[in-house]
Amino acid sequence: MNAATFLRTARFGMVGLLLGLFLSRIGFTDFGEVHNMFLFADLRMFLTFCGSVGIATAGFYVLTRKKRPSNRLIHKGTIPGAILFGLGWAICGACPSIALAQVGEGKLPALITAVAIIVGNILYGAVHKRFFRWDPGSCEA
Amino acid sequence: MTFWPWWLGAACLGGLVVASWGLERRLVAGSGSITRLSSALLDRNWGVEEERLLSDQDELQAALLAATLAEFGDQGADEPLKLDGNVIRTWAPAYSHAVFLAMIAVGGLISALATGSFQPRWSLDAAFAEVIGTGPAMIGALVVGGLCVGFGTRMASGCTTGHGLCGVSRFQPGSFLATGIFFGTAVVVSYGLEFLL
What we know:
By secondary structure, chain A is mainly α. Chain A is built from 6 helices and no strands.
């Protein structure tokens, strides 16, 4: 590992640590809070999400005027994939990052969620290679 | 346990994704890192070889020329493949993504320790036990839910952070559609769980 990659990995780690900390303190790792957000019984987390999108909109507007990240277009997997994700999130109360933060909090069953998410991801890779022809793009910039 | 008020959570979460782009030219994406991790697990390739190539520009040019020749034959040699400078700057080996994912768990641990709620246990929380159940019901829900999340996020090319936070804020059509649908589906399923169980 060279110095540049070491520093980049350290910065990755720092972002991960803050993400886990924030998700936990906001309440995204708490099934009851997430469930109440989806039922609109408690608007706190819904407002948190909308507020962070608002801040990100302002930030990206300023920062991406010169250099733009890649576009996220609609493809054949967008709708079925999002339906499956929404179904899964409502049942297990976790998206990929949340499951890991839950493990850190000591909620050991979330290990099952995390492993199932990785298995689901690998499974999709195999299914896509075998059956689908479209370009799913990347989740990253 | 008391959670952060919405404005504090929004400032921290929104600030984090913007800072990550500003400093790193990288969008925070949980499912993207999971995809990199699963590819590395399957191929047993953690990106060490690519990292070595990228750090040596001459070797990189030679590898690109060889790849061009292999793909297009002699007529391709005039215009060898070029790597976008941004790719070289933002590319990270798979183990960096593994560190990112592991540190999310450390963040959760710090949060739990700081609030005095850290206690390793074989349960999620009271609400989960009430809505879904415990024991086999819990395990079944986590397996099925986790598989759906893993499969679905990769199929839709993003999750809450990638589509919801980083995509909607950049007015990306795929992200608007995906976020509307996954949130809408989760609302319908949550109401279904309330009424059925």
